[in-house]
Amino acid sequence: MAAPLLELENLRVELTTKDGAAPVIDDLSFSLSAGETVSFVGESGCGKSMTALAIMGLLPAGIGRVASGSIRFNGEDLTTASDARMREIRGNDISMIFQEPMTSLNPVFTIGEQIAEVLREHRNVSDAEAKSRAIELLDAVRIPNAKGRVNDYPHQMSGGQRQRVMIAIALACEPKILIADEPTTALDVTVQAQIFELMRDLGREFGTSMILITHDMGAVAEMAERMLVMYAGRKVEAGPVDQVIDHPQHPYTRGLISCVPHLLTELTDERPPLAEIGGIVPSLKEFGRNACLYAARCEWADAKCNSERPQHDVAKNGHETACWHAGRRS
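User: That's the sequence. What structure does it adopt?
Assistant: C-alpha cells below.
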C-alpha cells in the first residue's frame, strides 16, 4: 500500500492570547492519498482554516506556532522546514484557494501578471512563456475570451470569474495538493455549482489531491471521498462521506446535518422545521480542556463527558468517532 501523500500526526497548533497559549488545533491526525479529496466540516472557529494555514506554513507570525506533532508531505516533515523550503513548496507542490478572491488578488496588477508571477517563481520560463501559459490557464478555468481578458484587472471581473482566476493561480504549477478554503463564499448557487464542477474536472485532469473546507454538505457529498468533522480544534468524527452522512455517530455531526434545509415535500407542500444546534462554541481559553468540549451543547452529556476527553473509536470501515455516547439516538 502506497504511503499517504500528506500525513498529519498528533498535530497541536497554539495561538498566544492574553490568557496564555491556547490549542486551536488539538491532537489532530489524518492522511491524504494521491488523487483523493478529503473535506473538512464544522462551524466557524473550529480549526478548519487554521489546519490549512499550518500545512502551508502560514500561521500568524508571532502568535501562532506548531507546538507538537508532525505534518509530513511525501515523507518530509514540514514543521521543521526552513522558510526558503516552504516558499519552494507553496504554490508549486501545495497550493491554496483562499475564501475571498477580491482580497486575495492584488488590485494593481492584471490577472495575467498574477498568474505569470507564480510560473516565473517556480518554473524557469520567460515573460512571454509565462503570459502564454497564463492564457492557457484562463481558458482551462473557462474564462471566455481568455486572450482578450489576460490584461484585465480584478475589479473588471465578476465574483465567479475572480474565483476562477484564483483557481488558475493555484493550479499554475500543477500542484500535488490543492487546499480550497470555502471556495464559493459570497457566490450565488449557480456559480457555486459551476466552481465545484470546475474544481472536480481540473482535479481529475491534473491528478491533484484536494482538501475542501466548506459548510456545504451538498458539496461534501459531491466532491469528497472522505470527510472530517471538527469541533473546538478537535476531530470528533471522520470516515467515508456516505457512511458519515448516512450514519452519523457524533451528536455534533447529526446536528450539522439536521441544519441543512429540506426541500418542500411533494404531498404536504410544507417545509419541515429547520433544526439548530443550541448553545455556542466554547471560548478559546476552554480549548484543550480534558473533557468533551461539546458537552455544554449536548443533551446526552453526563459527568464523564465533563471530566474525561473522549477516545477515538475506529470501526472496520474506517468510520472514526470521539464520543462517550457514539451512536446514541434516545
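The chain has a mean pLDDT of 91.
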